[in-house]
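Researcher: Structure prediction, please.
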Amino acid sequence: MTVEVNQSRDQYGKQAIQLQFTNVSGSDLTVEAAQLLSPMFADEIRWDPAGTALVLPPGQPKSVPVQLPAAECTGDAVPPDPPGRQATASALVTRPGQPTRQEIAVVAADPFRVLVRNNTELCFAAAVAAVADLALGTALESGSEGRTAVVRLTVSPKSPAGPAQSLTIGHVNGTTLLAEPPEHPWTRNITVSQGDPPSEWRLHIRPARCDPHAVAEDKVGTLLPLQVIVNGREGQLKIAAGDVLRGQLYDFVTKACSAEQ
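Model: Predicted structure follows.
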């Protein structure tokens, strides 16, 4: 059996990835449990079937979703590549006619550097969260003309434990679904320090696209990307809309695009 790490677009922002198993033997394998060990994460990445185990016919890849644990953060801007940080997968499997479970251990392939990317993003998010919590509000404010709306980005600084740390939100990027109206540019270059009072940004938005599949095929359009500098490192932090706001954003884009037709 081989194991490969991947991540679907709809798993972005959810701290989830996929494990893809491929049976390279000549008979069926049944995977009853599996785990991935990586030095880039604090605990094992586990897959336990909720009900039926995973049956793998020979040569047929199958993927299962798994949640990532907390990342191990070393302060490196980008974690070192394998072989020093290889991930090892192990699985409990059974074969037809052999009721005894067997453990198979292999080095997991990560051709798209999914583990490195997620470790980097999670560690950067942790550095930002040490200074302030950034979140999108739960309610969308529609513009009077119906073609624009307002989302609120709330900033809740933490209390300093020593010398106050700070971060700078350089700018907000658009998404595949949401864009900045020219008449209402988004705020730029805001510095936030521990101990500051809570604040709120009002971000006017318009649809970034109005093709028929804009909402139906959306995966990452409600993840708002912020360019942030913290601890001397610059990176992108994606703030996810909650379920209620995400539904409101989809409704807004649909209605605003209909009004333009």
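Model: The mean pLDDT is 90.
Researcher: Thanks, that helps.
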